[in-house]
Design goal:
- The complex is a heterotrimer of chains A (296), B (375) and C (360).
- In chain A, 71% of the residues lie in helices and 4% in strands.
- Chain A has 296 residues and is mostly helical.
- Chain A has a single domain, classed as ABC transporter involved in vitamin B12 uptake, BtuC.
- Chain A has a two-stranded antiparallel sheet.
- Chain A is globular and about 65 Å long.
- Chain B is α/β, with parallel strands linked by helices and 375 residues long.
- In chain B, helix 2 packs parallel to helix 10, helix 7 packs across helix 8 and helix 10 packs across helix 11.
- Chain B has 11 helices and 15 strands.
- With 360 residues, chain C is mainly alpha-helical.
- Chain C has one domain: Orthogonal Bundle (ABC transporter involved in vitamin B12 uptake, BtuC).
- Chain C has 14 helices and 5 strands.
- In chain C, the strands form 2 sheets. In chain C, strands 2-1-3 form a 3-stranded antiparallel β-sheet.
- In chain C, helix 6 runs antiparallel to helix 9 and helix 10 crosses helix 11.
- The chains are: A mainly alpha (296), B alpha/beta (375), C mainly alpha (360).
- Chains in contact: A-B, A-C, B-C.
- Chains B and C meet through helix 1, strand 2, helix 3, helix 4 and helix 6 of B and helix 2, strand 5, helix 11 and helix 12 of C.
């Protein structure tokens, strides 16, 4: 029982990290209708910025995270403006390949700037809360608990932003029908840039948590695999949906850890992906995704 | 579209030809390793250390060395391409390849072409298995490490119940694990848990929990230092403090940028090289490397530094000149290797017929953020 | 010129050009001329395999319009099937003819990857667009995960073949010589692939794909791609035609895998993960979605390009990335497109289609 609870809590906390990344994926997909494959690499850049500010410059963690968010926002807007905006009318495949190009670019640029040697940093070290359950005992890491809190706050904030504010409503309008939104006087380019800015800011937070809380190594390819996992999570929850990304992220995290704990770490990836496939075959647009309307 | 590619290709062809034109006299040593991609840290360490070694040798006058390093991205197809490029560039000897699977791929061709490969770090016995093998190792071969570790643990009575966490996507890690598991049985250790991960994993709570729940007193980690750092972190989060025991891949853990060294307190490792060893050559090399590249050299760097030195000594004593064809140089160096003893950063080495090296690892334990010889 | 005549012409010209390039390369290999460097010579068979991958993926992505991110998974199935069969024939059965070994292993590879394509295709093809992309990506990862756990050995004296999956503790202990050792992959398999075989397989791939696309079924597949609902209303069986393209694509990827696998001296399952699928997708999109000759050119150019760029060492992937982004922007941006079109009109005059449009 204790083993199960421990695994469940670890899964939720890993899942909340996926959720933060998935939120970035999902928002960009919802509004710009593109799979931003470079999202994971923006996370990696965020991680390096935290490292520089926290370790090299010796600033407090919160400054480092804010700096990472700022740099990621600038990076996100730059990428959108230079690489994706000229392709607004192009096929989704052309945009996908461009995003892959941007991903290669960021990974290799990072290696040239920061080298290939992995690095580490810690932003939270508050220890553990021991939980006693009958004769068993297990620990909950405070840092991981905080990451769950952070992702819930982010999700609520985003839901509020897109639901209630004027800018958020314009984002939804662009996502519903770009042409009509433009006719209603919404600046589509600015709205999409704003979406990228928000998504990239989340990537900055994710970068800090990935390395600083989860203890993942920071190297030029750090972002790739969490990026793919989070992409899976976004699709699982229904891509384009904010609560969907959150639920998808947490489910993927929980499934991964439970399979690893109780079945086999050897089959972890295979079974996680198999669940995703079964899910999508049963419900082809993900848990909370809107059905695709087709017009002739 | 097609026009673009054509123009670009033509332009690049010209550039690459211009770059290859520079020609100096010296023994041409090729290096194959990953300088980009996920394994880049290992390849760049080898290349950087080899360049330092070559520079030192060239500064002494006499026989000169030219290093020609080619990237393989830790990819078997690219490694064969890199090998063929080196052949086109006319290298005489190869220091490489750095990682195991590419090394197996290239070793087959090297055996056919009779080109000597001295690998600083591909430690699997599989790299030595070609017919008419031309590969020699500077590093330990994996089975030796697995067996030695099990024997050491049993001899010193470090633990009875042992767990293993290893990388099942990696030949090095799987290789050591397999022999460790076998030897553990013969020396009477009880293997209570084993858990795996791959390079793609970001979470180690599952693996650590498996060890903890099985009650392992000692966790054997036949893995590189970066995942090890993540495992130490996860163990701390789970409030689990067994004895951790690493192998030569663990070396480098103390010099990881930003890593909390207190997490590695009390970790045992068997390693032939330690960057804070108290001898002149090590101090000199570590100082130079740190000054130039901003990080402390690890196992890979040390093996590569030794590798260049070994090749140089062989060339001098066998009378190899820049004009000696590669196939001839190969036979001469192979003969030298079997009859020499080399005193390097990673200990005193001799070689066996099959290409393996004999050297003795030292068991060290980490105390107050530094290596101390284990009792 | 009618469409069908134009298609036949494209087919014939493509086959002729491929044959001519093959003959030139073959002469280069045999005479040992300077331009045929060891590097290029070592890449010839791989280039053939990547051309087959690009062409077969183009069938799925370009002609059938389904974005697949798991194509390398089928290649992996083909490669490891062929490696197992060829190694078994050589070490277990003592078959000496490398040609025969290749043919038998390739047939098995095509069969198994085609069958898997069929099994995967039935559930997957119900999905649309990006959801289909993620599911194919997931299948690719599952395949690579399972092969990473596969251990295969052969007993040299009896010819018995043993297979086991490593799940849980301990690696399987099997009798005989290793063919595949889990994550450590296969090594020293019979290298039965040759450039001539590669060329023949490229021609087979092209003939199959051209035949399919120019046939009645091919037109149905394209109609479904362009407007599924309209095609369905016309009475076309959507699933059947989509499956036809998907299974053909998978089988050809398996064939490419057999060629590739039996050309390597060491191969691991991890090689065929989603990154590889994406690389092949880049070939297809860069060469032009739906245009087979474009896939051939871009697969060739992009396989050679990183080798040519070696002089730039660590900057070369950066250059590759910038090149990719620029090509995508230049060929897809409306402004630059108009510029290229006017340039072409100035040089070559108006195309038939433009003349027709002008008349309207």
């Amino acid at each position: 029982m204790a083993q199960f609870l421990e695994a469940l809590i670890n899964g939720i906390s890993l899942g909340s990290l996926y959720a933060i990344i998935a939120l970035g994926y999902s928002m960009v997909y919802g509004i710009a209708k593109m799979l931003n494959f470079a999202h994971g690499d923006v996370i990696m850049v965020g991680g390096y910025i935290v490292f520089i500010v926290l370790i090299n410059m010796g600033m407090p963690a919160i400054v480092a995270i804010l700096a990472a968010m700022l740099v990621c926002v600038l990076l996100g807007i730059t990428i959108e403006g230079l690489a994706y905006r000229p392709l607004r009318q192009a096929t989704s495949l052309a945009v996908l390949i461009t995003a892959i190009g941007v991903s290669y670019f960021l990974q290799n640029a990072a290696q040239l700037i920061w080298g290939a040697n992995p690095r580490f940093f810690t932003i939270m070290n508050y220890g553990n809360i021991p939980v006693i359950l009958g004769n068993d005992q297990f620990n909950i890491s405070v840092g991981k608990l905080c990451s769950v809190g952070v992702s819930v706050v982010i999700m609520l904030g985003l839901s509020f932003f897109t639901g209630k504010t004027k800018m958020g409503k314009s984002m939804r309008a662009v996502s519903e029908d770009r042409g009509a939104a433009e006719l209603m006087g919404i600046n589509v380019n600015r709205t999409i840039a704003l979406t990228f800015a928000i998504g990239s800011a989340l990537a900055g937070v994710a970068g800090a948590m990935l390395v600083g809380v989860y203890g993942v190594q920071l190297s030029p390819t750090t972002g790739a695999m969490p990026g793919i996992k989070a992409f899976t999570a976004a699709v699982f929850g229904g891509i384009g949906s904010i609560p969907g990304a959150m639920i998808g992220g947490i489910l993927i995290g929980v499934i991964e850890i439970l399979v690893g704990t109780f079945i086999s770490t050897d089959l972890k990836d295979a079974l996680t992906f198999a669940v995703l496939i079964i899910m999508l075959v049963v419900k082809p647009t993900g848990l909370l995704g809107k059905p695709i309307r087709e017009k002739v | 579209m097609k026009k673009f590619i054509c123009v670009l290709l033509a332009a690049l062809m010209c550039l690459s030809l211009a770059a290859a034109a520079a020609d100096e006299a010296g023994i041409r040593i090729g290096i194959i390793g990953p300088f980009t991609g996920p394994a880049a840290a290992y390849g760049t360490a080898v290349r950087d250390a080899a360049l330092i070694a070559a520079e030192e040798i060239n500064a002494e006058g006499g026989l000169q060395i030219i290093i020609d390093a080619q990237d393989d991205e830790h990819n078997t197809e690219k490694s064969v391409n890199a090998y063929n490029t080196l052949k086109d560039n006319g290298v005489q000897l190869i220091l490489g390849t750095v990682t195991t699977s590419p090394c197996i791929a290239v070793s087959v061709y090297a055996a056919e072409d009779r080109i000597l490969m001295l690998t600083p770090s591909a430690s699997s016995p599989d790299v030595l298995e070609s017919d008419n093998n031309t590969v020699f190792q500077v590093c330990f071969t994996d089975p030796a490490q697995g067996a030695l570790s099990a024997q050491y643990i049993a001899e010193k009575g470090l633990a009875k119940k042992v767990g293993v966490i290893y990388n099942n996507g990696d030949a090095y890690s799987t290789g050591i694990y397999e022999t460790f598991a076998e030897e553990a049985k013969t020396v009477g250790l009880e293997l209570v848990a084993e858990s795996t991960f791959t390079d793609a994993d970001t979470d180690f709570s599952v693996q650590v929990a498996a060890m903890k729940n099985a009650g392992a007193e000692l966790v054997f980690l036949p893995i590189y230092y970066t995942p090890a750092a993540m495992i130490f972190n996860a163990a701390k989060n789970a409030d689990y403090a067994p004895v951790f025991f690493g192998v030569d891949g663990m070396d480098g853990i103390l010099t990881l940028e930003g890593f909390d060294k207190s997490l590695a307190e009390g970790v045992y490792l068997l390693t032939p090289f330690s960057a804070d060893a108290d001898n002149e050559t090590t101090k000199n090399f570590v100082a130079k490397y740190t000054e130039r590249y901003g990080s402390t050299p690890n196992q890979f760097a040390a093996d590569a530094y030794d590798g260049v030195g070994i090749l140089y000594v062989c060339c001098v004593s066998a009378g190899i000149t820049p004009e000696t064809p590669a196939a001839e140089a190969c036979e001469l160096v192979m003969n030298e290797l079997l009859h020499m003893q080399y005193d390097g950063l990673t200990g005193t080495m001799t070689w066996n017929e099959d290409g393996t090296v004999t050297k003795s690892p030292k068991a060290v334990i980490i105390k107050d953020g530094a290596y101390v010889s284990a009792p | 010129m009618t469409t069908s005549k134009k298609n036949t012409l494209i087919t014939l010209v493509t086959l002729a050009v491929v044959t001519a390039v093959f003959l030139i390369c073959q002469v280069g290999v045999n005479t040992g001329t300077a331009w045929m460097s060891s590097t290029l010579k070592g890449q010839l068979v791989n280039i053939c395999a990547w051309i087959m991958m690009a062409v077969s993926l183009n069938l799925v992505v370009g002609i059938s319009g389904e974005l697949s991110l798991g194509h390398a998974g089928f290649m992996s199935i083909g490669a490891f099937t062929a490696i197992i069969i060829a190694s078994w024939l050589k070490r277990g059965k003592g078959m000496d003819s490398s040609w025969l070994r290749f043919v038998i292993s390739a047939v098995a590879a095509v069969g198994i990857s085609g069958l898997l394509g069929f099994l995967i295709g039935i559930p997957v093809l119900r999905l649309r667009g990006d959801y289909l992309a993620i599911v194919t990506l997931a299948f690719g990862q599952i395949i690579s995960n399972v092969i990473r756990l596969l251990y295969v050995t052969v007993e040299t004296d009896t010819g018995a073949l043993h297979m086991a999956l490593k799940i849980g503790t301990g690696t399987p202990k099997l009798a005989g010589k290793d063919i595949i050792k889990g994550a450590q992959g296969a090594s020293r398999m019979p290298q039965d692939s040759t450039f001539v075989i590669g060329f023949i397989l490229v021609i087979i791939t092209l003939v199959v794909v051209f035949n399919l696309t120019n046939s009645r079924s091919g037109r149905a597949i394209k109609a479904i791609r362009d407007n599924r609902i309209a095609a369905e209303a016309m009475g076309l069986k959507v699933t059947k035609y989509k499956l036809m393209a998907f299974v053909t694509g998978s089988a050809l990827a398996g064939l490419a895998g057999a060629l590739y696998g039996l050309n390597q001296s060491s191969l691991q399952a991890g090689f065929f993960e989603y990154n590889k699928s994406i690389e092949v997708l880049v070939y297809v999109v860069l060469g032009g979605i739906g245009t087979i000759p474009g896939s051939i050119v871009s697969a060739t150019a992009l396989t050679i390009l990183p080798e040519v760029l070696r002089a730039f060492s660590e900057y070369r992937m950066l250059i590759y990335a910038v090149f990719l982004i620029l090509v995508m922007i230049l060929t897809n941006n409306p402004l630059t497109r108009t510029f290229f079109r006017s340039l072409r009109t100035r040089i070559f005059g108006r195309t038939d289609e433009e003349k027709r449009r002008d008349r309207l």
